[in-house]
Amino acid sequence: MLDATGRSDEAIAKHKAAIERNPAYATAHYNLGCVYIKRQQLAEAEAEFRECLRADPSVSPARWYLADILMQRKEFQAAMDTLDEGLRIAPGDSLVQGKLAELKAKMKGLR
Question: Model-level pTM?
């Protein structure tokens, strides 16, 4: 992956080109979201993870990252909804279950 070698601009261009050819290419949206996460461009990352999940709702790492972004913005209900949807799709998904447990603990601490 180009981003792993510090060439994030090239990685972004590559993923955007793939998305332009196939807007429903979930993997390209996910990978682009990950590049944006590394660059701390959270709004862009959120948009790509949402597009990834629109194309393929079963991509649980995208759901994890999206929930994490929402939690950072203290949008706890939106994060909960995102994770609940993931568990409806794949009830045994340990990645989503773990993030949901983290969210519930965080919300409990806020009371």
Answer: 0.90
